[in-house]
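Table 4 source record.
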Amino acid sequence: MNLTILHRFHPAVLYCYAMCLVEEEGPILGMLFTLQGVTHLDATAVLVLFNLTAQAIEHTIVYKNAGPDQAKMLDGLLYYDSFHKRWVIVQSIDEEYIAMRTFSPETGLSPLCLIDRDEAVETGGMESALALQIWPDYYTFLYPKPFDVHLRAPEITKRDIVIQQAKWLAMRDELAIITKNDDHLGQIPLWTSPQTVWLPDNAEFDPGTPNAHLTSAVHIQQSTTLAESELSLIYSDAKVHLLVLFSSESWPRTQMELPKGTPHEGTQWRAWLTGWDRDWQQLLWVYAPDLGIETDAKPSYLFWPDSQVALVAGPPHAETATVVLAMAFQKNGKGVSHAACLDEHGQPVQIAADAIGERPELCCAGSMVVGVDLLDGTWRLWNWKVLESTHFAHHQPLSGACKRAHVFAEPASERFWLVEEELEGVRISHREVSTLHEVSEEVFVAGVRVREDGEELPMFGYRRLNIMPYQSSLLFLARDASDVMALYKVE
């Protein structure tokens, strides 16, 4: 295999929030970064649009990533709106706001628009947004909204936002810097004065700052609560739309009565997979595996177990789509796990008889699911014919040097990529899904890291991994021994 460095970014690039690949437009790889700064006043973000065919940056958009009262952007998601040919940035600001911006080369960068605010009196803060669903006439934001701690779990909120296109396109962030390269990133602008932020014309929350104003360009069409849960995760594809809930049994609420566990009803942390229609309007089914972990002695002060859930679209079964899940939860030295294949109606097609370890990750190619996990202190690789057997077909330990492993299916093939993180670098191999054998010589990239320390987040740590298959290659962002971020390609 060959390793190519497609681009080395300016040393000021600190961290990547999200990547988004749009193959019909170039193809273009969008990357949302934060830049190094000295104080919260110079908090700066940059959106880089990279043309993979030309292997060059098409646009670099630098902007102040702060909200009201200089509140700093803590997290971000990146999407592409193919209906209106623009990029959409979903921002979580200072654990208080969910907000958005849009960018297109023709109209520039929009100003910041606040979508919702954490209004609880006593709260742990607004968590990161779960997902954005893009429709021709509106955007659906899905996010956990905190309630007062110790009283109720966060509300998983669905908020539909209608944009008046002509008015929205006329609104621009005039201070944003848009160029064709990233050479200027070392000279970070100091935006010391507050920037104008906008709210939907019918917003019920008030940031209480003079630079926040209502705009008729944005309107809240509908806002509903889907469920209540301490932790949550969204998975969505063409046929399956899942909201995964993980909470104490006595806390979660949905439109449908959730099945309880036995014999410790009300005293366990448990997981529920809830299936919804494509509009996130109606709860269709609930799948609740019979496993749980004891809650704390004082359930009003909940401490999250270490929780991981992996989901991937599985092979078709009896003309229905499937989804394969692997979940593992640990607390106080005890752990439980579960793996299954469900059809699009939430009915089990297969339940794994083999144990699942910690930190599971999955991919699927053809009729075979490939997974990695940490079992009894050793990382291992396995595959599973989910439509034929309850047992894994093959499993093998990975090198003792492996500190974390990830798998990615190669599109339209029977192969996958295995990425192993080691202390000295990253090892990448290309393998057959049926045998797990390597199909070419592996590549070891010395001195780089693909994850930052302390990135493990409950339920969605995978979101921080900026690696993705592209045609017959693998793209990934990594920081090298010089602490410089670079975009790599292996093929």
